[in-house]
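Follow-up to my post from last week.
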Amino acid sequence: MNEKEIATIFKAFCDENRIRILLLLLDGEKCACRLLEEMNITQPTLSHHMKILCDSGIVVGRKDGKWIHYSLSDEGIEKAQKFIEFLRRK
Amino acid sequence: MNEKEIATIFKAFCDENRIRILLLLLDGEKCACRLLEEMNITQPTLSHHMKILCDSGIVVGRKDGKWIHYSLSDEGIEKAQKFIEFLRRK
DNA sequence: ATATCAAATAGATGAATTTCAATGTGAGGT
DNA sequence: ACCTCACATTGAAATTCATCTATTTGATAT
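User reply:
Got it. Predicted complex:
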């Protein structure tokens, strides 16, 4: 895991709207259209943020017909957690 | 802690050079000039990144004459850790 | 096949970020 | 007082990012 990969993981957390999305996903899986209802952004903007969140590994999408159900990824979150823990061991 | 504050904390981790700096600080306190030696950026660029790192709370600077000694901040890192942990409790 | 709905993509725009060269500031040292 | 060293600030250029409108894709239903 190099510096670039680590930065990509944490891109998930460095935008206000993406934090908002993560908090919405705490309730459990939600499709993009549900998220869209609860946010004040357009559909393409949401799509953009979902791509960054998925690229970071913090969120995963499950395709189901024309819907995509997004949820938090334990593995992704664990990766982020591991790095933060690593910083603390001094 | 609102979405904006959380995003500000994690700004520390979403740039390649800042991750590099954090890793260098794992060894312990270092002054800016030491960090500068080990990075391939100019002094003003380093100064810019140090500001973002300090604003995020992940790094603290200790002034000592004309030097500033930077180190990782346990409190800051703990804050980040708490948020990530919060995401995992589902 | 057509219509409809969910989501992605393309393209544009403005804002934010990264970076550098030049300059300023402030603390020691001579 | 002057010089030097460590760092910050300014201002500008280049890049990246967030956002929008418009359009496309892909899946389901009629």
